[in-house]
Amino acid sequence: MANTLLSLAEKTFIVHGVDDNYRTDGRNRSEYRPMEVETKVLPHTSGSARLRLANTDILVGVKAEVDTPYPDNPNEGKLEFFVDCSANATPAFEGKGGDNLGTEISNTLTLAYQSSHVLDLTTLCILPQQKCWKLYVDVLILQCDGNLFDAVALAVKAALYSAQIPKVTTATLDGGKADIQLSDDPFDCVKLDVGSFPVLVTLCKNFTFIQIGENCVVDPTSEEEECSAASIVVAVMPNGRITSVVKTGYGSLQPSTLVKTLELAKDIGIKLNAGIMNALKEEDELGSQREIFGFLK
Amino acid sequence: MQNQLETTEEEECVLRPMNCELNQLSRPDGSAMFMQGDTVVVAGVYGPIEAKLQKMMHDRATVETMFSPAKGPPCVDDRAKETVIRETCEAVLLTALHPGMAISINVQELQDSGGLLACAINAACLALIISSISMKFTVAAVSCMIDRESGKLIVDPDSTQIQQARVTFTYVFEGIKKDLVSCHTTGRFSENELMESLEKCRAASQNIFDFYRNIVEQYAIKL
Amino acid sequence: MASQYKTIHPVKYLRDYLAQDIRPDGREFLRFRSASVNVGAISQADSSAIFKIGSTTVVCGIKAELAAPKADTPNCGYLIPNVELSPLCSPKFRPGPPSDQAQVASKTIDDILINSSALDLTDLCVCIDKLVWVLYCDLICIDYDGSVTDACLGALVAALKSLTLPEVQHNPETGAIVVDTSDRKPFPLKSLPVSTTFAIFDEQLLLADPTDEEESLAKGKLCLVIDGPELCGLYKPGGIPISQELLSKSLEKSKKRADLIRKVIEAAVTN
Amino acid sequence: MSGQDLVSDQGLRVDGRRANELRQIRVRMGVFGQSDGSAYLEQGNTKVLAAVYGPHQPRGGGRGGNRSGTGIINCQYSMAVFSFSAGERKKRPRGDRKTQETSLQLRRAIEAIVQVELYPRSQIDVFVEVLQSDGSDYCAAVNAATLALIDAGIPIKDYSVGCTATIASMGASEEVDSKDETGSGTGIVDANHMEECTGATTLTVVALPGAPGSNYESDTDNSGLVVVAQGTGARLHLSRLEGLRQRALQGCRDTRVILDQAVRFHLTTHDPHFI
Amino acid sequence: MPFDQKRINGPEVSVPYSVYTDVNKSKSSKPKKSLHKRVDGREHKDLRKIFVKTGVISQAKGSAYIEVGITKVVCSVFDPREIPNKNEYSLQGELFCEFKYAPFACAKRRIHQQDAEEKEFSLVMQRSLEPAVCRQEFPNFQVDVYALVLDNGGSSLAAAIMCASLALADASVPMFGLVTAVSAGFYKDTMFLDLTVEEEVLCNSAPAKPNPPNNHGLIMQAALPQHDQISEFFLVGSINIDCIKQAIETLTVANKNICPVVQQCLVKTVLRALKRKEQEKN
Q1: Which fold has domain E45-84+92-281?
Q2: CB of E277 within 8 Å of any CB in chain B?
Q3: A162, B170, D120, D213: which has the fewest C-beta neighbours closer than 10 Å?
Q4: Given an 8 Å threshold on Cβ–Cβ distance, is C108 in contact with B80?
Q5: CA distances to D30, D164, E70 from D181, in Å
Q6: Signal peptide position in this chain (chain C) (predicted)?
Q7: How far apart, in Å, are the Cα atoms of E17 and each of C76, C80, C132, C165, E145?
Q8: Is B53 in the C-facing interface, judged by CB distances under 8 Å?
Q9: Where are the domains of chain E?
Q10: Quick one: average pLDDT of E67-74?
Q11: What is chain B's mean pLDDT, rounded?
């Protein structure tokens, strides 16, 4: 993201490469770059994860707080996404510079998690109309090298996977006032069922001034993003259902292309979901004594 | 420097005693602290100064006004007062003399015991006189009310009297023909009541103009 | 040609017209534009009105909600009028918090309503010290072409006049509230204030019901609020001084105008 | 815990440290590939990331750019919304008064060591992100920023090192205890969040401690200069200030040694051309 | 409600009276009814009647008004102005869209400031319209588009997009073609076109039995029907891919069907403008 300036010739080079299914970093169109994920990097949060996708670096912290439910949905808890684009990623994000991008990503996440198929908010309710859990999912973007949406969604899923919400031992209504007690034992906690949490798949349609074919690439680098007129961000659940579709960029698509793109997104999304779950399970197997590297590695 | 002049009883005047201190503030180009009874307002004028790019007008000066209430941040009510003060001052000033410039008038309420708007306008007018910006005419503001029970017309009421008011009027007159510059009312009233109050206030405004003259004279002598 | 002339020299353009004793839109000096009102067009609001004066358009929508009253006025409801001069209605306005102009307009409308005593806030009381109605009256200007205060007040009064409120059963002991939406009662409006705006030009020239173009070039503005035989507001925020005759003339004109507007609103509401 | 017992009778603090003992400092330089310089620093549980961009052409041409003969240092201090250790969540990462003030203080600390006159018409950006806050955040930020500057290869005069010294507040009338026998001042260094919250007086010092061995007291030398000093908490008797200052300066010198080692280690392992 | 210095403020807490009515109880019977036949008597794939008009705001460069069923939206477009707070030269002009519900437009009162949903819809509007506007014609300038929903009877985003495209055309902003937009919703296996508010609420909530998972969700598709291009596709919910394919097909046809209505309106606008020009000449 930092200072991506491309000439027309460079753009044409990238686009032609994509057409021949050979990208500047040697990948083919539907290949992801290497990823690294580590959970529980922030011991003071309920759940956290750091994900690196090439140079894109995402840190997610989840905090659970006790709150009162909305009057219109008294049986539901709350889930809130906040994306902060740190100036560490690029000086352009200084001050309020990253706010627009941050809002766009957090909105997309909100849409992706909106359906009750994904996360049944009633499970976050403690006492109807009185108390519920509010999950703050705070994303910090430390470095961008393209494909923020996918990286953020993966990191969020990993962080939510690692999240531990304290168990509520007693919840009683005492004269209209709620009285709840949380378990004192820090290991006595509830984990979220991430089985149906979606990931985002960004399919970037590359063309500069001359439209070439209808090929799209997954996991675009920031250079490839620069050449794209339109991207489709699709939220795919592990079972292949789609929970949100958002188009970004200024271009338009033909209906047939859109259908193809969505099908491709579904296939990739299923694989990606499986991949991240595998990685997380592997990490789990290392046990609770594993060393946490964080940024020291 | 302190200038004092109180309206005497024999005029059977209707206005509360007035008191004024001129150019007490060092930063503004002209300032006045004006008291009418217990109502106290400070006004300061800066200008003509360079205008902000967005507000600049090529054919005349922009007039900016800030009205700050005694406590708390300004709200919608204060914005309305601010507008009356600004538009009145705009009518007073020869804005065409300073194209592309800005004249900024800051009014701070110190205490309100009735007739705040009138007092603020008078203070602003005095500050403008002292700042020696060219003016078309001077203005004087007079407030009055009609009592709820007796139906009596009271000029320049204080805050306890206003509690009993059915109607209140605030008029601003110019100094030459005593024509009406600004007007603000609250409550329901008939046409006759309007005309009657207008006449009474017009007559009373002469006191304020006299006060201006006296105080500025004293100020000039002391200089 | 005319439009270029207007852009380059707006002041002279208008002055040329006025010198010919006519206004740019073909009206005489003291002629008003036609006014129309449409009531109840918005299905989601409790009551609504669209008021047009010439091309100036204001939409008023009222939403009624329930709340606890203020401690010092336990038997009074709330009426919250807010004027929105959004960037939609004129290039003069920018997105963001309300401009000074919008704030002053809100305040003026609020003042007029209180001064005219057109509505009794105690009529909004459901249960003393416990529950009262809050009427959120949002006035949105759709087209800003002068005399917006007049249009706002017209829209608000028309909307209030057609407002009905559902019956509320409040049990003071348990605090239980039941609202019966099938049984709606009209809200009593005691009077019908009408405001009229005039623009004042040099040499005591009075223009009734100015357009935005005239308003922005005028040397002063005068706004009279008439309610039946009485006045409930006379607003002249600065501008060039006016003589006594001018005041009397505008008073007379605005009385006639008020009668007409009142008829228009009443006709629209009874239909 | 009351303000009186920051140090127990056995001479130990809440986390088991001695009064003049720093928390464990762990450092990694060059964590980011895209910035010109970056560093990650842990001081106990306080974790900070710093990135440096520049020197480059100043942005924001609207403000007239930088026509002066010296470079501008532009700093932003921001705290991740999840950075607070104790339960609550921060509303906004930056833009509030406290972070803005800290940004300004950070700039002062950086301006003291960068030779701005080498970079006319240019700008150097220093961004610091606090990932976890557990006391002495500002000092950690200064230390991390210094390391990031070194990583970016920007010539500096000395390490700019921050350290806090905290002393329990006492009644004004109470007799001032004389200097510690060791002569290294009074109070505890590098307070953590718990210790900061006791209502004790904290002196935050940013200093250029100079290389070990150089005499910090001599006025001819730049070393030992205090760049930023800030006191918070309860009032302090003037006579106790010197002891507190000494303690904080000693902390700075100790920190400098650790940072210096880390830099040398980084350069020898990552840059074969070094030495 | 937070205190706003620049507005007249009401009480801190107030509750819409609909909370206390008994209507909520009868809600459960609704879905079954509308699954077979819709409340307003339409077939599942029928659109509501559309009324469009241009030139409704005298002060704007271009403006339009649209009514879809009871949904009412006004939109205005202003002269290009320099992009505020921008230093570099931008080769392509920009489109600034603001989508706002009037405070009284929805069942629940809205606050005056834009909320998250409105901001999101503003972005969707911008993305739908951008492909249709020849932005290279006004480099370094920005065209402001404001849409205001006066009455929300469902599908107000789609209505706003169409309205905005008409307003842009009315303002003589160079465009590649008109933008139309249609919304669709899924509940179980039923697809509705051109949703009402009740149907929007229904499609937003997941059907009771999650196993096997049932479809539910909303789709909004904006298109340039003259060029057979989709300019924006906005989906929320949980829908399987086959149903989405089916929806894209149906929506593409629906968009093509709406196009003549909008075109007709533009023809009228042009004729009116020509007439006015002639009058000015005489």
Answers
A1: Ribosomal Protein S5; domain 2 (3.30.230)
A2: no
A3: D213
A4: yes
A5: 42, 21, 86
A6: none
A7: 18, 17, 11, 10, 35
A8: no
A9: 45-84+92-281
A10: 94
A11: 88
Tell me, yes or no, if the pTM score tops 0.90: no
Q: What is the largest CA-CA distance in chain B?
A: 54
Interchain contact, C134 vs E109, CB within 8 Å: no
CA distance to B47, C107, D47, D129, D159, per residue, from D132 (Å): 51, 48, 5, 9, 23
- Touch criterion met for A and D (3+ Cβ pairs within 8 Å): yes
Nearest in space to C136 (alpha carbons), one of B75, E19, E102, E22 = E102
Q: Enumerate the H helices of chain E as residue ranges.
A: 30-36, 116-129, 156-170, 197-204, 241-281
Per-residue pLDDT of D16-64, as tens digits, reads 888 889 999 999 998 988 899 999 999 999 999 999 998 888 875 444 5
> What band does B142 get if pLDDT is binned at 50, 70 and 90?
very high
Q: Which amino acid is at E232?
A: E
Whether the per-residue pLDDT at E282 is higher than 70: the answer is yes
- Averages of pLDDT over runs of 10 residues in chain A (297 residues) are 69 83 86 91 90 92 90 87 92 86 92 89 87 92 91 94 86 75 78 88 67 72 84 91 89 87 92 93 86 82
Helix (H, G, I), strand (E, B) or coil at A222: helix
- Which ipTM value was assigned to this complex? 0.86
- Backbone CA torsion sign across C209, C215, C219, C223: positive
Query: Measured between CA atoms, how close is B174 to chain E, in angstroms?
Result: 32
- Residue keyed to tokens 């009426």: C79
Distance of alpha carbon B190 from alpha carbon B167, whole angstroms:
10
Q: How far apart are CA E215 and CA E205, in angstroms?
A: 10
The one-letter amino acid code at A22 reads Y
Q: How does pLDDT run across B87-124, given as a tens digit for each residue?
A: 999 999 999 999 989 999 999 999 999 899 999 999 99
Going from the N-terminus, what domains does chain A have, and what CATH number goes with each? 8-285 (3.30.230.70)
Which CATH number describes the domain made up of B9-222? 3.30.230.70
* CATH code of the region D25-59+67-270: 3.30.230.70
pLDDT reading at E26 higher than 70: no
Pick the CATH number of C34-270 from 2.40.110.10, 3.30.530.20, 3.30.230.70, 3.40.1790.10: 3.30.230.70
